[in-house]
Design goal:
141 residues; Alpha-Beta Plaits; 4-stranded antiparallel β-sheet; alpha+beta
């Protein structure tokens, strides 16, 4: 059997639970055809680079597969019929990378959106001096 990495982008309108259910359906298809899923990563709702079918965001998922070609073909056929799927891509790889993907590794390292610490309520950068008050000349106004 061959190794594959598979990425799916689902519509922004569905819930994260529905996106996870889609991953479970894909896993069932692969296992039904004699393959196995080594890892599934749900990357969450992310911005798209450009609009796809009027969507600006999508639920991203990554799967690492050890499956025969007919299993991948059937999975892609099912995805092309699913209205919730915006895009998918399957790439054959030499070996499976079972470590955390760079997307999730960066999120864990940064701690989500906690990288914005230290900002004031207005979103100040924190490294600037406050602006001096403007003085208006009454005659010029």
């Amino acid at each position: 059997m061959a190794y594959y990495e598979h990425v799916v982008i689902a519509r922004q309108d569905i819930s994260p639970q529905q996106a996870e259910a889609l991953n479970d359906q894909l896993k069932a298809i692969v296992e039904e055809h004699g393959g196995s899923v080594a890892k599934i990563e749900y990357w969450g709702l992310r911005n798209l680079s450009y609009r796809i079918k009027k969507n600006r965001k999508g639920h991203y998922s990554l799967m690492a597969l050890d499956a025969p070609a007919p299993a991948v073909k059937e999975m892609e056929r099912q995805l092309s019929l699913n209205e919730d799927v915006l895009r998918y891509m399957t790439v054959r790889v030499e070996e499976l990378d079972l470590e955390l993907s760079p997307v999730l590794a960066r999120r864990d390292r940064e701690g989500g959106r906690e990288g914005r610490e230290g900002r004031g309520d207005r979103g100040d950068r924190g490294d600037r001096e406050p602006r001096p008050e403007r003085v208006y000349d009454d005659a010029a106004v």
